[in-house]
Each structure stands twice: as structure tokens, then as C-alpha cells.
Design a protein that fits this description.
Elements (H helix, E strand, L loop, with lengths): L1 E2 L50 H13 L4 E7 L2 E6 L2 E6 L1 H8 L5 H12 L9 E9 L9 E3 L6 E9 L2 E4 L2 H7 L3 H17 L4 E3 L6 E4 L13 H10 L4 E7 L2 E6 L3 H17 L13
């Protein structure tokens, strides 16, 4: 939400902690039941009644921010504003917060408190988790957000975020320079944090044999980034037939299949492209051989 950019399968004998059993398995639980066709259908939530308009929502947040001593507003346009605090400029994006607001997940005042915490305002009682890595399309990366190149697709980058109660806050260049002068330490810490998170957010399964599809879609903004985890890729490769293929059509969706059945691969490739065009915060329309 806040930005100120430097870019620079063995067979599994025991059930992996972050891959749920296929839906046909007697071990499958209702929590991880297979999704109804199509396999990449989005799961929408109820919208709140009589919400603020986007302009009203943004005005409420900006008003709460400029009432904080030391924060000034330099400019604003739809869903984006430029703030300054302690001689540092920040670009904030409010589109993600507005989506959460419309789904009843956050109030404007809570979103403003989250932004204050990201700006380093003292006395804000908000606990953060992370950092976590997050996949982004290069052209959609907000100015000033720290990111590294993605090693399997030059169209993507890996940014890093703090997880706050009401959403994710990107790390900026000065954040990284201050806390992680050794970028390998940031990468290691972020993958460890994401790995622990995926242990409590397993995949759902549909199909069987050569048509097995594993899907991670928990809606916390980190599903696609799980493709970066070597252990998750190795475990998924042990479930599918043939070589592992993975796709992240949107930030809140990651799927894995095997390439043993060409017809199944072609069908899922079509669904990935359709999901990329349809879902919010698209990442990539491609299937990647990452096994």
C-alpha cells in the first residue's frame, strides 16, 4: 500500500505439511474440498451495503493521515497519493484497501492507522509479520517499492511486504537499506516466513492421476508468491504425474499440475489465461516449468 525502487522430485512417502489431500482421498476434509468447475473459478465475498464511494473512502483516509503531526499531503489522484514525513516522500496506493473495505474487512480509520504504522509513526499499536516475498508484474510495481528480478520470468519482480492486520505494506528502498544491508539475509528471512505461512494454508486438490490439480487460493495476497518456495515445489512435484508445471494467474491464486496429459495441460493453460484476464491483481497468464 505504501511505496517510496531498487531492482536489481522425489516421491513423497509422508503427506507434506502444505499440500492437502486430493478431494477423492478419505483424508480430505470439508475445509479443503475440491472447488467446483471451472477449476479456476474465483470465490467472491458479500459486499457491504451502502458503502462509501471510492472518492469518499480516499478522502476519509487522507484526512486521518494529515491530522497526524508531521504528515503532509503533496498530491492526490484516484487511489494514489503522495505524502511526506520527516523529509521522506511516500507514494501510497489505496485500491487494495478500498477492495477490502467493500468486502467489510477494514474501515477507513483502520486503513489510515495501517499506513501510519508503515510510515513509522510512533505509538501505533499494530503488530506486523514478515517480511514476506510477493510476486508483482514489473509494469504494475508502484514507484519506490523495493524489488528484485524474478528468476523465471523477466516480466515479474519479487517485492517484499509486511503483513498487518488489515493488509500488506510493501518495503521501500530505505527500509531495506536500513534493516538488510545483506540482501541474501532478506531473501532467506522472507522465504522462511512464507514457508511457515504455507504450513497453515495448504492446497486444495481436484482430479486424480494425470489430471490432478493442486490449488492455493486463500486470499491474503501471498498465494502466488508460494511458487518461490523450493520445498513447496518439490512436494507438489511428488504429487503430480510427469514434470511439475505451476501458474500464478493472480496474486491470490497458485495452481500446480503435471505435464503427463497434454489435453489436461492445454485445458488448464486456457483456464490460466482466462483467470489472468478476469481476476483482480493479475500476475501471469503462463504455465511455468519450475520442478
Amino acid at each position: 500500500m505504501v511505496s517510496d525502487r531498487r531492482e536489481s522430485g522425489p516421491e513423497i512417502d509422508e503427506r507434506p505439511s502444505n499440500v492437502a489431500p486430493p478431494a477423492e482421498s478419505p483424508l480430505a476434509s470439508p475445509t479443503h474440498a475440491a472447488p467446483a468447475p471451472p477449476e479456476l473459478e474465483d470465490c467472491g465475498d458479500q459486499l457491504r451495503a451502502n458503502p462509501l464511494t471510492a472518492i469518499e473512502f480516499q478522502r476519509r483516509i487522507l484526512q486521518a493521515l494529515v491530522e497526524e503531526p508531521g504528515i503532509t499531503l503533496e498530491s492526490a489522484r484516484p487511489f494514489t497519493a503522495r505524502l511526506r514525513r520527516e523529509e521522506r516522500a511516500y507514494t501510497i496506493r489505496l485500491d487494495g484497501a478500498f477492495r477490502r473495505y467493500r468486502h467489510g474487512e477494514v474501515e477507513p480509520e483502520q486503513a489510515a492507522e495501517e499506513i501510519k504504522a508503515a510510515l513509522g509513526v510512533p505509538g501505533i499499536d499494530i503488530q506486523r509479520e514478515g517480511p514476506f516475498p510477493r510476486l508483482e508484474r514489473r509494469e504494475n510495481l508502484p514507484p519506490g517499492v523495493f524489488a528484485l528480478d524474478c528468476d523465471f520470468d523477466p516480466a515479474l519482480v519479487v517485492s517484499f511486504v509486511w503483513a498487518l492486520p488489515y493488509g500488506l505494506v510493501p518495503l521501500e528502498e530505505h527500509d531495506v537499506a536500513r534493516e538488510w544491508p545483506d540482501l541474501s539475509a532478506l531473501w532467506k528471512q522472507a522465504l522462511e516466513q512464507l514457508g511457515r505461512r504455507t504450513e497453515t494454508a495448504p492446497a486444495s486438490g481436484s482430479g486424480e492421476g494425470s489430471t490432478l490439480l493442486l490449488r492455493w487460493s486463500h486470499g491474503d495476497g501471498l498465494d502466488a508468491a508460494a511458487m518461490l518456495l523450493p520445498d513447496l515445489r518439490a512436494e507438489a512435484a511428488g504429487w503430480v504425474e510427469g514434470s511439475l508445471l505451476m501458474a500464478a494467474p493472480a496474486r491470490d491464486m497458485l495452481v500446480a499440475i503435471g505435464d503427463a496429459d497434454p489435453d489436461h495441460v492445454a485445458r488448464i493453460a486456457d483456464e490460466v489465461r482466462e483467470a489472468y484476464e478476469r481476476l483482480p491483481e493479475p500476475i501471469s497468464p503462463r504455465l511455468y516449468a519450475v520442478g
